[in-house]
Specification:
Strand order of the largest sheet: 11-12-7-13
CATH class of the largest domain: Alpha Beta
Largest sheet: 4 strands, antiparallel
CATH superfamily of the largest domain: Ribosomal protein L6
Shape: elongated
Order of helices and strands: HEEEEEEHEEEEEEHE
Number of domains: 2
Strand content: 35-45%
Structural class: alpha+beta
Number of helices: 3
Number of strands: 13
Radius of gyration: 21 Å
CATH topology of the largest domain: Outer Surface Protein A, domain 3
CATH architecture of the largest domain: Alpha-Beta Complex
Distance between the termini: 55 Å
Length: 179
């Protein structure tokens, strides 16, 4: 049984939840998000509390119940508070800049890399080496941060590259002769 799926989701004041068939839309102060729900799952709104129930009992549907509950909870958190992800650039001469919705990265390639941000993601650059991404959609924010990190993954010897702020890079020793 899904332990996460059983937990109710409280809807805070100022958040509007619309349920139509298998579509849910959540609107708050920061914006609105929409999502489709699979047919085997039912979402019920009673007294500002959302509950996710199974229409069919099986292990697969139970797993989707927990996933659906987490996705709806992230939607509610996103429209009220939003999400933030920070990337750090390490390396001599490595830097970033932003203009409108294009992130320009100088990370050791012969030409700067330009990364077009999705519409729902905003970015700020602090001190040329810290990129702060913000969005109401946690899924798109994570995908965007991952794609930016893929441009120059951190390498294990000197740690040069783009990494998440809370990520720890395990360093390797260099050549055996070098000290």
């Amino acid at each position: 049984m899904s332990r996460i799926g059983k937990q109710p989701i409280s809807v805070p004041a100022g958040v509007k939840v619309d349920l139509k068939d298998q579509h849910i839309s959540v609107t708050g102060t920061k914006g609105s998000l929409k999502r489709d729900i699979i047919d085997e799952i039912e979402v019920v709104l009673e007294n500002n509390v959302l509950r996710v129930n199974n229409r069919v009992e099986s292990n697969k549907v139970n797993a989707f119940r927990g996933l659906t509950r987490s996705l709806i909870n992230n939607m509610i958190i996103g429209v009220t508070d939003g999400f933030k992800r920070t990337l750090v650039i390490e390396g001599v001469g490595y830097r970033a800049s932003i203009s409108s919705s294009t992130l320009t990265l100088n990370v050791g390639y012969s030409n700067p890399v330009e990364f077009k941000l999705p519409q729902t993601v905003t970015a700020t650059v602090d001190g040329n080496t810290k990129i702060v991404l913000e969005s109401i959609d946690k899924e798109i924010l994570g995908l965007t941060a991952s794609r930016i990190r893929q441009i120059r993954k951190p390498e294990p010897y000197k740690g040069k590259g783009i990494r998440y702020e809370d990520e720890h890079i395990v360093r390797k020793a260099g050549k055996a002769g070098a000290k």
